[in-house]
Amino acid sequence: MNYEDRPVGAFVVSLIAGLWMLAMGGMMGWGYMGSRGWSGNMYAGGPGAGGAYNWMWAHHQWMHGYGGGVLWFWLGTAAAILVLVGAFAMYARPATAPRWGVVVLISSCVALLGGAGGLFAGILGMVGGALAMAWKPQG
Description:
This protein is mostly helical. The chain is 71% helix and 0% strand. It has helices at residues 8-35, 51-63, 70-92, 97-114, 118-134. The longest helix has 28 residues, at 8-35. The termini are close together.
């Protein structure tokens, strides 16, 4: 099976979206959990209280009124994992690409609403899902 028989574009776009969601959602969760004392004492400059940690604390404060904290972190992480599973599944089994495209599209919408990865990752995931749903084998 060569590349023409696989939804490579949908796979690449969905893969980037899923990795972006997972990375950004993980940083949001790390900042949230860190602000609760799980990864150092930010007030005393404890372990992990560097530039990235301070940025995550500021990001957490900015997102504090939106999303419900750790619940959205887990929802966003689950959506990111579904996007990644969908990306690999559509590449491994091209015949099921349209169905996995629906999974990627819905998961990307959930991640977008939950704030996992932001607007960039949500739109990329929706584009990847749409590409997979529109994909047809060339043979």
